[in-house]
Amino acid sequence: MPELALKSVPGRWVLAATVLGSGMAAIDGTVVGIALPSIGRQFHAPLVTMQWVVTGYLLSLAALLLVGGTLGDLFGRRRVFCIGVVWFALASAACAAAPDAAALIVTRVLQGVGAALLVPGSLAIIQASYAPDDRSRAIGAWSGLGGVATAAGPLLGGYLVGAVSWRWIFVINLPVAVIVLAASVRHVPETKAAGSPRLDFTGSVLTVVALAGITYGLVEGPARGWTAPAVLSTLVVGTVAGIAFLVAEARVTAPVVPLTIFRLRQFTVTNGLTLLVYAALGGALFLLPVQLQVVDGYSPLEAGTSLLPLTLIMLLLSARSGRLAARIGPRLQMSAGPLVVAVGMAMLARTSDTSSYVSGVLPAVIVFGLGLAITVAPLTATAMSSVPGDHAGLASAVNNEVARVGGLVAVAVLPALAGIGGDAYLHHAALAHGFRTAVYIAAGWCAAGGALAAVGIRNPAPPRRRVEVQLGPQWHCALDAAPLARRG
C-alpha cells in the first residue's frame, strides 16, 4: 500500500487533485441555482424545467454514488477517478453548449454520472494513499479546502453569470479538469480494495429505477396532474422498484446497502434526522437565489455572495462543535441544532418584505448557519460511531446518500407544496408569496428533525475507569467526518 507523506511533493499533488476533483462536483451541485433565473429567461422555461436542471444532476449522482465507490474498489480508484474527471469535463462542455432546456437537462444528468465516479474516489484515494500518521491530517485538509472551494463556487458563478453568461459556469470546469487529470496521472498512486469486492448489479439498477420513477412523478405531478398516466405509472414503477430493492438487498450476499445496518436505532434515527434537515436545506437553498434575484433585485454576484457567512460559520465552528459533542454526547446538539436551523429558515421569510441584506438576509443566514454548525459535526460523527468500527466507511456513505436523496426529493416537492408553479418563479408577487410558504415548510421539517433526535438519540455511556489506576478525564474523540467514505 502507498504511504505518502502529506508534506512531500507527491502528497501535496494528491491532495490538490482530490480537492479540485471533488470540488468541481460540489460546486456544480450548488452554483447552478444562481444561474436559474438567467437560464429560465433565455429558454422561456417553466419552473418544472428548472427543477429538472437541478434534479437531473442530483438524481444521477445520488443513484450512482455507491456504485461509483464500488467500481473504484474493483478496478482501481485512480482509474475510476480519472474516468470520472474526463466524463465530468465532457458533460460540462455539453452543458455549456446546450441549445435548449431539454438538452441542458440531459447533459446535467450525464454530469451527475461523472460526479458519481469521481466523488467517492476522491476520499478513497486520500485514505489509501497516505501514511497512517498523516491520514487524518490529509482528510482534515481535504475537508477544509473542499469547504473553501465550495464557498468560492457561488461567488465565481455569480460573477460569471453577471459578467459573461450562465454557460461559463460549466466552461470553467474544463481547465480545472485538465489540471486534475494531469496531477492524477502523474502523482496519484493506484490502489484497489483488499479481497474481491462485488458489484451488486441488481440493487444498483433497482436504486436507479426507484429514484428516477419517484422523482419524475413528484416533479411532474403538479404540472401534469397527479392522475396523468405518465405520472401515475412512473410513481408506481418507482415504488415497486423500491420495494424490490429492499427484498433483493435482504437476499444477496454482497448488497450495495446491507439492510441489517438499519437495525441499529442510533444509526436509523441519525439518518432520519439527516433526511429532514438536508431536505429543508436543499429545498430552501434551491429557491433562495431565485428569490433574491427576482424579488429583491440582487445581481447574480450579490446572490452568490449572500450565503458566504454560512460557510464561514461552518468553517469556524464545526470542529469546536464536534469536540463539544464528544465531551457531552450528541443528543443535546442534535436536538437543539435543528430547532435553531428552523428559526433561521423561518427568518428567511422576511426577505420578501425587505430588500436590505443587512436587515433581511444576513440575520437569517447567521442563525441557521449557527444551527448547522451545532448539528452537522455531531450528526456525521454519530452516523459513523453508531455502527461497528469496520462499517464506519459504509455508514458515512449511507449517511451521505440519505442527505443527497433528501435534497433531491425536496427540490421536487417543495415548490409544489408552496404553490410555486409554471413561470411564477419569474414574477415578483407570486414568488414572494410562495417563498414565504416554502421556508415555513422547511422550518417545520427541521423542527421535526430536532424532535426526532430528542426522542431517539442516546448519549454513549461514559467509559468505565478502573479504580486502582488514577486516570485523568477521558472522552471519545469526535470525528468531524468528511462527506463520504468507502469500505476497503
What does this protein look like?
There is one protein chain. By secondary structure, the protein is mainly α. It folds into three domains: 199 residues, Up-down Bundle (Growth Hormone, Chain: A); 53 residues; 230 residues, MFS general substrate transporter like domains (Growth Hormone, Chain: A). It has 17 helices and no strands. Helix 14 packs antiparallel against helix 17. The termini are close together.
List the helices and strands and how they pair.
Elements: H1 9-30, H2 32-43, H3 47-75, H4 77-96, H5 101-129, H6 132-163, H7 168-171, H8 173-187, H9 201-224, H10 229-251, H11 265-294, H12 300-305, H13 308-328, H14 331-347, H15 357-385, H16 392-417, H17 428-456
In a nutshell, what does this entry contain?
The chain has 488 residues and is mainly alpha-helical.
What are its keywords?
Growth Hormone, Chain: A, disordered C terminus, 488 residues, mainly alpha, 75% helix, 3 domains
Low-confidence stretches: 465-488
In DSSP terms (H or I, runs of 4 or more residues), the helix count works out at: 17
Estimate nothing, just give the exact number of structural domains.
Answer: 3
What structural category characterises the helix and strand content? mainly alpha
Q: What Rg, in angstroms, do the CA atoms define?
A: 22 Å
CATH domain topology of the largest domain = Growth Hormone, Chain: A
The CATH superfamily of the largest domain bears the name MFS general substrate transporter like domains
**SSE order, one letter for each helix or strand:** HHHHHHHHHHHHHHHHH
Largest sheet: none
Number of strands: 0
CATH class of the largest domain: Mainly Alpha
Strand content: under 5%
CATH architectural arrangement of the largest domain: Up-down Bundle
Mean pLDDT across all residues, rounded?
84
The rough form would be described as: globular
What percent of residues adopt helix (DSSP H or I)? over 70%
Distance between the termini: 12 Å
